[in-house]
Amino acid sequence: MNIFNLLNQIWDEHIVLPAIQRDFIWEEEKIERLLDSIMRDYPIGLVLLWETYEDIQFRHFEKEYKQGNRFSFKNNNRKKRLKLVLDGQQRLQSLYIALYGSYENKELYFDILSGDNTDDFKEEKYKFYFATPEEVKEWNKETENSIEAGKHEELEYYVKVRDLFSMSAIEKIKFKKKIAKRLRLLEKDEVRLETNLAILDERFTKDDNILKVSILDEDKPSNSQERKKEADILEAFVRINREGTPLSRSDLIFSMLKLEWKKSAEALPEFVFKINQGNSLELDNDFVIRCLFAVSNLGTKFDIDLLRKKSNIKQIKYNFDKCCNSIKSTVDFVQNHCWCSSSKVLGGYYNFIPFVYYLFYAKGHQMPNNQIENARKSLYLFGFARPFSRYADSRLWKFIKEELKSLEDENFPYRRAVWWIQYWEDIDEFGEDLLQRNPLLVHHLVQKLSGAKTKYRKNLPEMDHIFPRSTLREKAFNEAEINHFANFWILEKYKNQNKTNIHPKDYFEDMSTSELSKIFIKKDLFNYGRYRTFIRRRSDNIINYIKKKLKYKERDFIFEEK
Q1: Which letter does DSSP use for residue 61 in this model?
Q2: Strand 57-59 vs strand 74-75: parallel, antiparallel, or unpaired?
Q3: 455 and 407 inside one domain
Q4: Is beta strand 57-59 parallel, antiparallel or unpaired with respect to 102-103?
Q5: What domain count does the chain have?
Q6: Number of H helices and number of E strands within the chain?
Q7: Domain housing 412
Q8: Average pLDDT of every residue of the chain
Q9: Rounded Cα–Cα distance for residues 378 and 484 (Å)
Q10: How many CA atoms are closer than 13 Å to the CA of 470, on its beta-carbon side?
Q11: Are 374 and 467 members of one domain?
Q12: I need a surface site. Which of 2, 83, 290, 356 has the fewest CB within 10 A?
């Protein structure tokens, strides 16, 4: 079965998604890479479908994808024949969006002049991008200007993929002639254009081997006793995703919750959509379910067997609204009192879960004013040390059980947080070792950035070396010195693109001394012979600044064991 055959069945609503499936999570870059793989004739796996007449909860594929879209679920009351996707949802949804729809109001375009071999096989050979018509018009205009200037190297020309597939054979011939004339293509470029369009058609409309399809219960009579039941399919679903890599344990947990608590199929994603508005914390179902487990005192490990007890599901349902309020309060605390809008910057959202638990049991789910400093210092300590990025299942619950569950007052246990960081991460002072573990957080604090997503792609922040890495290596500095947090700063990606190997004295020439001094960069130290002095002084200044800003004291890290 070729790719277009599958997508047409999705269009006709014959192939649908069962409620037990997780949300669509692929980012546009991953979809673009999938298209490149198809063009290169790389197999992209197996799709597993289940043909059924069961009255089962399902939803249709999304055509116009937007983050936070909420689904409406249907029941197969009329017992129509459906094919439900058990494995391969992410790939099918990606292809459906790419060829039939849009991703965040952007459609898929193909660089019809791409396809040259590269030295690095990991790089995309065939260039696909989600873009707006305005962006594509600008890109293509740049190519036309280059040709006017007599430059015919590395040409790019983007055409909407959907338009390419809608052309008839005669229209394609006319299109190729038109493009060749407009761009004054050399013979090699004309050949590449011809080849690309032929490959595109072959891979998607004729090739049955790139994406394999297996269908359970295919063409069996609707009343056959051999047809599988919903319970069989859930068990198959769990086994498939336990043995493979696509589903996380939280997805399996969510699938089981939806069977016993159908309202959760819409209530939980709706809450996740709302809580992510106005910030870049990127909380998801995984986070909310882990919080629900924690506040229900079921631990923080996703143990599927716990949901075989109806009393546990009942407890989770009972705690849902209060847990959501505690998450809202945690988000307010992180943004308003910790000045950050990014979970990535703060070392991952696992660091928020102790605060959700604390606020779940706090009066009115609010952070007491006299505990803001302790809680903030604890969050930043977790953000720098990242103790929960490894062993989250055991460490999170150990901290909650031993320090929060047993709290006899409303004081957030900051000193105990310090003790656990010393115990887990072997950090006994606020210094270089601690800050080196999360340079991204260091420089967001120093440069007073919130971590919020940018609206304009050229303003996308990127952390980069001040003294170029390649030059430092040539001068025999070791990796620890090269990648010291004091040798980083954050600037818009677009402005960083042409920085490679440029001496910092030249790169920072147009920046004033006063502006650089605000982020502890001294121009008089822009000398490779003084690099170690630059690192030492800037490191000391950064440590002292952050200690003062967050009110860390030396005595915080000195105490006897409990």
Answers
A1: P
A2: antiparallel
A3: no
A4: unpaired
A5: 3
A6: 24, 13
A7: 248-427
A8: 90
A9: 24
A10: 5
A11: no
A12: 2
